[in-house]
Structures are given as C-alpha cells and as structure tokens.
Amino acid sequence: MARKAYVSSVGFTPVGDHWEKSIIDLAVEAARGALKGSGVKNPGQIIVGNMFSAVGASQEHLGALLASALGLSGTPAYKIEAACSSGGAAFNVGYNLVRSGAVDSALVVGVEKMRDLEPEEVSQALAMAESAEYTQFVGATFAALNGLLARYYMEQKNVTRDELSSIPVLDHANAVTAAHAQFRKAITPEVVGRSAMIADPLRLFDCAPVGDGAAAAMIVAEGGASAGKGKLSEVLGGKIATNEFSIYERDDMLDFKATRDAFRGATAEAGISPKKLSLVEVHDAFSVVGALSLEAMGFSKPGEGSRDAKAGKYSRGGELPINTFGGLKARGHPVGATGMYQIVEAYLQLTGQAGKNQVEGAQYAATQNIGGVDSTSAVHVFGRSS
Q1: Is 333 considered catalytic here?
Q2: Which of the residues 84, 180, 283, 380 is marked catalytic?
Q3: Structure pTM?
Q4: Which of 80, 172, 244, 287 is most buried, by the most CB atoms less than 10 A from its CB?
C-alpha cells in the first residue's frame, strides 16, 4: 500500500546572473537550505534535475558530485533529464520512491547554469529538446517553433496581440514582490507588443529569460523521524505524460495532450476536483505555451486562455491565481531547475510562507512543468497539511 509523502522543507537561490558560482555551488546552496529545514541528515536518495550541464558547465555526473560536495558520499545519487521538465521529472522520481517505501526520504535538487553561455549557444542547447534529425537539422530554434505555434494559435482562435501579452503582464505584476525573481518590474501590454521581435509573432517579452538558479525540496514519508520537524505540505498526486514528439506530428498542434493527461492523472491520484485548487504554477516559457497549458488543464476553453488572463481570472486576487511569484517569464527559467522552483513556490504558499505573494487561504496547489513543446509534461498536486 502506498504511503503518504510530504515536502518537509525547501531551499533555493535567487534566479539571475551567478557569475561567481559554479553549477555545483548553486546546487549545494539550495540543497543545504532543504537539508537544514528538514532535520534529515542522511537522505535515502539524492536526485538532481538538470537539462544540459554538459553543454552549460562541462559537467556531468551531478548526482555523485553533489553528494560528495554535501558530505554525503555513499548516498545513492543520480541525475534525471527531461529537457525543461527535468526538475518536475526528478521530483516525480523522488515522490514515487518515498511513496512506494523504497526510501524514507529523498532530496531533490533542480539546477541549471545558463548565463556562462553565449546567446547562440543557449539557443543550440535548448534546441536539444527537439529532434536532432529534423528540426535541429534545418536550423529551427526552439523560439522559432513556438513562434509558429503562436501564429497558428492567433489565427485559428482570433487571439489579438494584447490578449497574447496578458500572461507576461500578469507574471511581472506578481514578481514585483518576489525576492528570488529575476525581473521584479511591472510591465504593460504595450511594452510586450513593442519589444524586440524574436520569432514572429513572439517578441522579447513573450519569452522566458536566460538565468542561473537552483531549487531543492526534501520529500519525507508519513511518520518518518523527520516528518515533525518543519512545516509540511502533502504530495497528493503526481504524473508524467508524453505527446507526439514534435508539433508537426500531431493531429492538433493546439492540443497539449501531455499536459491534459498528466493533469487528469495527478488530480485523480490526489482525489480532488480541479475546482478545489487554490493556485497553479504554469509552465509559460512562451506566452502561447502558458495560454495553451491553461486550456489543456481545463481552466479555460480552447482559445480563451489569454483572454481569461486579460480579464483577471488568473491574477493573484482572481478566481484561480497562477504563477504567484512571477512564473517562468519574470521569476526566471533556469531550465533544469524550473520545475523545482514551481514546487518550492507551491510549498511556500501552502505553508503560509509566501510573504507579500501569499494567496490567502491556500489549501491546494498544482504545478505543471513542460519539456519541449508539450512533448513531456510533469504535473503534481499538493495540499496543506493539517
């Protein structure tokens, strides 16, 4: 029989330019925060979520390296990679290990070092989330693929430029009071619409920025020695699903099937209706991805995700707050760490530690972390522990 699993503590760095720190420095800083808060001295497993450390930091074997740096040599440790959903995928492994009884605790760390690369190198690294034989071969960047998707979305669903801008505007409004966010400045739809063109119709402010960062969480079993030390948030459900790998292979490019399936599976495992969610951390690497994600999870009708955001449905005081610390666009998107930042933020909300970004009365939260263009989606549901 499956055991209950809880997040007992978290640790994280600000997202930004960490020129003076290596990838392992960032991972250690976040991990120590989670270890200190949990009271767990020797976790049963260490799992690292990362997308491209070999390219970004000339470093692989992150699991053993982190264990050694933490003084935990001997602890089983390894890296999980699932493109930009690496953090969410790593957490899912830790959750299932604890839930199954394989270990009593798991330290999960998401980390990425991106700013040491030149912009064109970052673009090439991100393109590895797509097919080397087809999309990479013809020079299609990740931004270009999402630009094509955005154009199709706007034309098929009659979405305006101002409507597409609504989620980035919301993100930046939430990030103003988020101490760990990369960009803490409010913007307007006009700022988004007039920013530099990246991949028509996507402009600079439609796209998540490049940054360094690490976030960590300790997962503990119900009744474990560490379960009573800190504030707890129960992991109620977690699922990973995949889609046809590339958008041009799909029957409907606007159907984020992986997200839909993962969300349905996670909420079913959690045993709660999506209507009970107090907040959702959405993977909005591009404005169009945020809108399509909200539609795939059923919060908006097809074509209405951006319009609903513009109408205030997803604002912090709205019907369903999203991206409560700024989302990928404003908190930042250190790709292998993003899923773990989302989970950290859900934990802070559900344990009443979100400060000025607190959603009042938050009882349930979901996180959605995508790899590729919805090629992989990891969704987790959390509850406030009584």
Answers
A1: yes
A2: 84
A3: 0.97
A4: 287
